[in-house]
């Protein structure tokens, strides 16, 4: 189908828009009628031409006429001048504005027959051209499906071929692959996200239209596996052949996804094993498996950073795939494995900023990551405990924590606030209601056990201090002369609730 916009773009037709709120409205044919209620004889999406529209009476009559057209699926009315009217009735213009009806003025020297013939030619040209374009695109898509990373290759070829932004999402809405034609407007990406949100709320709606563009959703059944979604967005309403290309591309994408899952499973097992060998110090064996997973990648070398990530498994796998695609092109390859429901990654130092930048992406905001200190690849295992510890310091207010920063901030940070608070409560429990003993403990820690200084600060005799210390140690069950007991007392006092 052609659009009103395409028709208005032909100046030789001597037509002009008086009110056109929907320029992307589809036109499947042209009809002519002078009846007051022509919609009953039409199928919808026609350009309706008239010279009098049955001459409705007054404002209410014209409004009722426009409402009948809109209700009948007629989005565009062409009003011919020179017969019943020399100008388009102002009441009709007013009615069109109220109902959202596209209204076109047809000049007196423009015959309805010639206008109908032009629309028919446009439809025929579109159909013929579309067939050739679709056939050529099909061949390119088949070739892309035979390439490595076939899902990405098909997505890119499809986006260029139909002039759209194409996104493949898994069932949970995570982006598997995406590509855009170079001619699209910048605001189409925002419209694509808005359309996905609307689709997520109402899956029965497979198309979305706004001033920014038009978006379609097509389901993909990857050979009985998890359903995926193919999303295509255009700045203008797509031609029929472009829409047809989506369903045909969907079959190739389904096959590519199924193959990708098999390859990914094998690939993942190689990386898991390589990671385990690396931790065992068997760098040579890890290198052999890494070369099998990344035939074109550089060797394992240089310094690597351990990163431990927590979150939903699907999000973790999507993150690993994204990091892998970005890193292996120019740097030594990353390694990763799943361990205790977490994703553990070995990232080349140069790739760390790129890796961490993913955590600001919308689809990864629920993930939390602990970053360890970098080590030479041969000693990588030394940094992993720090990354695991750093992960424990993440939460609602901190998505990424670095072990280097935590370790420099002292013992309390290393232990964690919740752990310290729990220890403090348990340690000081025997002193509940004993304010003077708590005060004595504070002074003991502050003066490092200097009884003379404690007595002076508290205003007590040294013998009184000595007796209270005996009572304090008895209640706590510790000997404050021991370094470990002093450290415990300090931690307990620091962890008290304010």
Q: Could you explain how this protein is built, in words?
A:
With 498 residues, the protein is of the alpha+beta class. The chain has 4 domains: 109 residues, HprK N-terminal domain-like (Udp-n-acetylmuramoylalanyl-d-glutamate--2,6- Diaminopimelate Ligase, Chain: A, domain 1), CATH 3.40.1390; 116 residues, Dynein light chain 2a, cytoplasmic (Beta-Lactamase, 2-Layer Sandwich), CATH 3.30.450; 116 residues, Alpha-Beta Plaits (2-Layer Sandwich), CATH 3.30.70; 80 residues. The chain is 48% helix and 18% strand. Strands 13, 14, 15, 16, 17 and 18 form a 6-stranded mixed beta sheet that branches. Strands 2-7-6-5-4 form a 5-stranded mixed beta sheet. The longest helix is centred in the middle third of the chain and has 40 residues.
Which class of secondary structure composition applies to the elements? alpha+beta
Secondary structure tally: strands: 18
Determine the mean pLDDT.
83
CATH topology assignment of the largest domain: Beta-Lactamase
CATH class of the largest domain: Alpha Beta
- Please give the domain count: 4
Give the termini separation: 71 Å
Share in helix = 40-55%
Q: Tally the helices: what do you get?
A: 18
Corresponding CATH architecture of the largest domain:
2-Layer Sandwich
> Largest sheet, described in full?
6 strands, mixed
Name given to the CATH homologous superfamily of the largest domain = Dynein light chain 2a, cytoplasmic
- C-alpha Rg, in Å? 36 Å
What is the global morphology? Answer: elongated
Specify the oligomeric state: single chain
Low-confidence parts lasting 5 or more residues at pLDDT below 50? none
- Approximate strand percentage: 15-25%
